[in-house]
Fold this sequence. Notes:
Helix content: 55-70%
Number of strands: 0
Strand content: under 5%
Amino acid sequence: MxxxxxxxxxxxxxxxxxxPLGVPQEAGVVGRLVERLGFLFAAGIVIxxxxxxxEVFLRYVLNRPTIWAHEASTFLCAxxxxxxxxxxxxxxxxxxVVLLYDLMPAPAxxxxxxxxxTASMVASGFFAWAAWLMVAKSVxxxxxxxxxxxxxxxxxxxxxxxTKIFLFVVMIVMTVQFALFAWNQxxxxxxxxxxxxx
Length: 198
């Protein structure tokens, strides 16, 4: 395997191949699934905005406010923000400082990509464990029966428990996503190293 060359014969940097959805190929099936689910959570933000507009009308025009609009819209936005972190990770578009990264040669950047993805996988795994500890406290009573944590408002939904459960699921999927990135980047780095020897 050889590196691509431009018209002058110099090696050119290979960019990550993206799927038609805009997800890097290295994200795998998890990245493609997360990309498709993104529209669902984006719609949740629109629904939350409509709820708040309805609440303003009911409260200040009809003087009949609801007891659920504020908490429901907050819940939808919270889900969207939590999913947004996974969405950015799957698209490999999370914020990064590239001052030193851009100064390195392409082979070093490929191995640094593997290191960054592995470190992110480990960090996500620790956050998933921390989220599980929160889930355990908000779903099970000390006596062992299921008792979802509630908001304590007049509506009193189990939004705190469901938010923590969703955070746990997101962190598990994010851990898997970074593991896929690390594995595929490692395979790419190995193939480039084999190509260098040929």
